[in-house]
Design goal:
alpha/beta, Uracil-DNA Glycosylase, subunit E, 13% strand
Length: 172
């Protein structure tokens, strides 16, 4: 199965970075396409998007200043199928993308994504004290997968800090 395309451009407000595409995303070519994934609901209810978008509209979020990538591009049924070598290579590729495109914020959709990227074992939800790439804020958020055992309201609460953070950056 082919990787799905990143949606990137220079100076994004937020770059969302997941583990890797689901099989459904690989089949459709769109980010967060699994019907059990709550990503699009979380963005809308967290005040990040003006309405609930559909996976087929993922590219249109570039107009809002939001992009998409993954630490590993190979679609799998579950993140535990990703190899150490894929994470190592993905970490280097992601650093290059962030350094090249210079988003204001990288939102890691899953604490494990950030841990594999940064090598840091313990990370709180929200903005991290020290970015891996200077000039870009690393923001850790829960995975939007339906397998996550947090209440959806708690997940949305964490994501709702993104527009507040973005407004504070834009006011500087």
């Amino acid at each position: 199965m082919e990787p799905i395309k990143d949606h990137l451009r220079d100076n994004l407000d937020i770059l969302f970075c997941g583990f890797n595409p689901s099989i459904r995303s690989g089949e459709t070519g769109h980010h967060y396409a699994n019907p059990n994934n709550r990503f699009w609901r979380i963005l809308h209810e967290g005040g990040i998007t003006p309405r609930k978008y559909r996976p087929e509209e993922d590219f249109s979020l570039l107009e809002l200043g939001y992009g998409f990538t993954n630490i590993v591009s190979r679609p799998t049924k579950a993140a535990d199928e990703i190899t150490k070598e894929e994470y190592r290579q993905g970490r280097e590729n992601l650093k290059k993308k962030i350094d090249t495109y210079k988003p204001k914020i990288v939102c890691f959709v899953g604490k494990g994504v950030y841990q594999h990227y940064s090598g840091i074992k313990v990370a709180p939800w929200g903005p991290q004290e020290e970015p891996v790439i200077p000039g870009t804020i690393d923001f850790v958020a829960p995975s939007s997968s339906g397998l996550v055992r947090m209440k959806i309201e708690d997940v949305i609460e964490i994501y709702s800090k993104l527009p507040v953070l973005l407004r504070s950056l834009n006011e500087k």
